[in-house]
Amino acid sequence: xxxxxxxxxxxxxxxxxxxxxxxxxxxxxxxxxxxxxxxxxxxxxxxxxxxxxxxxxxxxxxxxxxxxxxxxxxxxxxxxxxxxxxxxxxxxxxxxxxxxxxxxxxxxxxxxxxxxxxxxxxxxxxxxxxxxxxxxxxxxxxxxxxxxxxxxxxxxxxxxxxxxxxxxxxxxxxxxxxxxxxxxxxxxxxxxxxxxxxxxxxxxxxxxxxxxxxxxxxxxxxxxxxxxxxxxxxxxxxxxxxxxxxxxxxxxxxxxxxxxxxxxxxxxxxxxxxxxxxxxxxxxx
Length: 285
Known about the structure:
Blueprint: E1 2-9, E2 12-13, E3 18-20, E4 22-26, E5 29-30, E6 36-40, E7 57-61, E8 67-72, E9 82-85, E10 92-97, E11 100-106, H1 109-119, E12 123-127, E13 135-136, E14 142-143, E15 152-156, H2 157-169, E16 184-188, E17 204-209, E18 212-221, E19 228-229, E20 234-235, H3 241-247, E21 256-265, E22 267-270, E23 275-280
Parallel strand pairs: 2-6, 15-16
Antiparallel strand pairs: 1-3, 1-16, 4-5, 4-22, 6-12, 7-8, 8-9, 10-11, 11-12, 13-14, 15-21, 17-18, 17-23, 18-21, 19-20
């Protein structure tokens, strides 16, 4: 049967993911996922598309969300770490996410100075306000924090294996799963498991994991973030977009890889949970 192999939370949008063995799935996705966002001084969100060094920042957040620590891998650049008590009572400010205006709670000057030094450009950190009411559109719509679109990104090992085989045919080295920054990674342990078929997640319309239920929102359109080596924080070459363009081009002109889901029923998720598809549909491509 198909099972969860990895659960990854991204507390700060654009920064490194935090693998977890268990996670609470809230109406807006994994608890604390994309609950914080790095912005420019004028409020525009920072992304690895323009600031690949975001990938070097390793967030750690307490279970109750009250404490956040930011550091870099092995402190290679000598920046140390910054720790903060998360505030939800500070004044709100406008933030720009893909041209839409939302609200954010500024987390203060200390973390702003640390981020500005690490990224080499003036930056600040904001938190999603408790009253945040953003709804991400899709076949099944639902709440979302500061994620690019829908609350949950799911990808199968079989889909990545196929991509790596196709890249090998072009003489390109394989890529790790972290290039695609999924929340839930699934795998089929037998040849007849649905997740053993590449891109079967494209057709899953409703699925259950543990006590939670997800509804399909849309395919995941890939961008230049996939070109960033996550462990190095630098952009490297044309892959995987070059290879994906050869067999995963959508009608809209972009390339798609993985699927986005909205939360129908919140619950608790754990690594090795069974992932059962209760409704199938046709792939949108």
